[in-house]
Structure formats: structure tokens, C-alpha cells
Amino acid sequence: MVALTSPYLWYTTRATGLVTLLLFTGVLVLGSLVANRVGGAAVGRFELSELHRSLSMVAVIFLVIHIATTVIDSFVSTGLISVIVPLTSAYKRVPVALGSVAFDLIVAVWISSLLKTRLSNETWRFIHWFSWLGWAIAVVHAFMTGSDARSGVGLALVLVCALAGLLAGLWRFFARPARAAGRTALSPLSPAPAPEPASPRDSRRVTPPRERTVADTAFPRRPVDDQRRRPR
Amino acid sequence: MGMRRRSGGFVLAVNPIQCDGFGHCAELAPDLVHLDEWGYPIIDKTPVALSNLSALESARLAVRGCPRQALRIERVSEAS
Fold first, then answer.
1. Shortest Cα distance, chain A CAs vs residue B37, angstroms
2. Does domain A2-174 match CATH 1.10.287?
3. Taking the domains of chain A in order of start, what are their residue ranges?
4. Which helix (H) or strand (E) holds B71?
5. Would the CB atoms of A219 and B44 count as touching at under 8 Å?
6. Which residue in B34, B55, B67 is closest to A193 by CB distance?
7. Are the Cβ atoms of B46 and A49 closer than 8 angstroms?
8. What is the mean pLDDT, run by run of 10 residues, along chain B of 80 residues?
9. A95-120: per-residue pLDDT in tens?
């Protein structure tokens, strides 16, 4: 086919590679923002969370395009199996292998998030930690493999991504709030809550306001400076 | 048909062990969830009618949006 010998697939591979790195760095930073409970006033915390989810979908799509064009293109011979299995590529054996490993990790994180409601939250979180490893390997892969990543704009992009991800990681691990970081200012969806709920639905409630119980707040069971401050 | 299915009510229930006080539920379902001063949710245990579709939808959003999956919707037969 003409398309297989034309340079455009190869150009697509190079371009989507850089864009994918940018997108996953954005996903990483957004995930850190969610985990460290940023937001509440100007932007809702749930909005950052939704953005994290949506952007990760876009990033996965770009990653699939990046890999598909690499495999289909005949300019370099990586082979279909090297998409998943490391060290099976004839072209740039080790750098492409890093890409395979990063892809495997990202797929694991992706599938676990798709199955999130069927997994225990602890399992999902454990798998989700590997996104950091996948991203770090992807950065090295981008630097070692990328035809544009050794100079000029490409190098600048890779460096910016590496720095952003590194800072996000440090901030995520060391500036993590111990459990709840206080009340959010609520989303733009609603005004600040009145002490006494006064929505129209409340007129239907005939029961008087119930006293708070331990089960409501769950706060007395948790010491403020508990052991789970550090990631397990 | 639809009428029978919508009879009864629901309560948004939180698992206090799982909850880490992210506060997403209070943003997504501000009519159902309030936060205490530490950021943990206080949810009224009075059942809400299933026919209250906006409340049900916001409860579903809160369940989906909880980063710790600490929320669930419990159906009860009677809405008071």
C-alpha cells in the first residue's frame, strides 16, 4: 500500500508520541491535584477528578494511535509482538522495550479503572500506583526512542514533562494532607450550606433534625495524626 | 410499571471506614450531603423518594465520583 511506504505514518508516530507524553503528564498532575485535595472554591474537586478521568481517556487514545502507526508503518520494523512483549523489537531494541513496559503498565491501570466498581478500592489504588512507574518509563522511552526528543522543541517538551511529573510526584508524596483537609467551599452547583437544611424537599420531612452520631462523622475513631499519612 | 418501580425511597449511605474526606460527594450532591468541619460527610438518614429524580441523579453522581468508593445508594421500601 502507498500509505505504508509514505512518511506520514512515521510522522504521525513521532507526533503522537510527544502528544501522548504531554497528555499523560497532564493526567499525572491532575491525579496528584485530586489526591492532595486541591479545589473547592474556584474549581470543584469533583471537576478536577472528572478532568483527570476524561484526559486519561484522550491520552489512551493517542497512545493507541502512536502504537498502531508504529506497527503499521514499514519505515522501522518493530513487529506486532513488541507492542506488549519487551525486547522483541528489531528496531531500537531496548528503547522500544521501555515503551512496551510502559504500555503494559498503563493498560493495567486503565483496565483496573474500567473495572473499578468490581474491584476493592484497595486493589484499585495499589494498581493505580503503577501509573507513576509507567509514566517514568514512558519519559525515558520518549527520550531514548524519540527522533525529535534529542533537540529543540522535542527535547524541551520531554524535559518540561519530566520536570512537571517529578514535581507532581514530590508534592504528591510529601505535601499530602492527612486525611480530610477541611471543608470544601462546595461547587458552583450550590451556595454555601445553611446550618439548617432549607431546600424545598425538606418541607416533606416531618422528623426533627436527628442528633449526630458517631457513624455520621466517623471522626472520633480517627486520630488526626494517624499512621496512614504516608502512602503504604 | 414505572410507577411501581419508583415507589419507595433511598438513602445515600457512607462507609465511614472507606471515607477519607475528599468532599466530592458534597459537591456532587449538595442537597443530600453536608460536610462536618473536618470535611467528612454528614448525610441525613431520612429516606428520599425515588420519584425525586434530581436527588437520585445527584446521589448516583456522588457514588460514581467518590474517590474511595465509600458511598452506596440503599433502597428502602418507604419514603417518609
1. 6
2. no
3. 2-174, 200-229
4. strand B71-76
5. no
6. B34
7. no
8. 66 92 93 88 91 93 95 81
9. 999 999 999 999 999 999 999 999 99
ipTM attached to this prediction: 0.86
Instruction: Judge: B39–A207 Cβ closer than 8 Å, yes or no.
Output: no
pLDDT score of A220? 44
How many domains are there within chain B? 1
Confidence label for A75 from pLDDT (cuts 50, 70 and 90): confident
Backbone angles phi, psi at A120, to 5 degrees: -75, 150
- CB half-sphere exposure, A150, CA atoms < 13 A: 4
Q: Is B53 on the interface with A (CB under 8 A)?
A: no
The model's pTM is 0.78
Long-range contacts of A143-152 (CB under 8 A, 24+ apart): A144/A92, A144/A94, A144/A95, A144/A98, A145/A17, A145/A92, A145/A95, A145/A96, A145/A98, A145/A99, A146/A14, A146/A17, A146/A18, A147/A14, A148/A14, A148/A18, A149/A18
> Does B44 contact A210 at a Cβ distance shorter than 8 Å?
yes
CATH number, domain with residue B39:
3.30.70.20
Under 8 Å CB pairs connecting chains A and B tally to 105
Place of cell 471537576: A47
Give residue B48's domain range.
2-76
Q: How many CA atoms lie within 13 A of A136 on its CB side?
A: 9
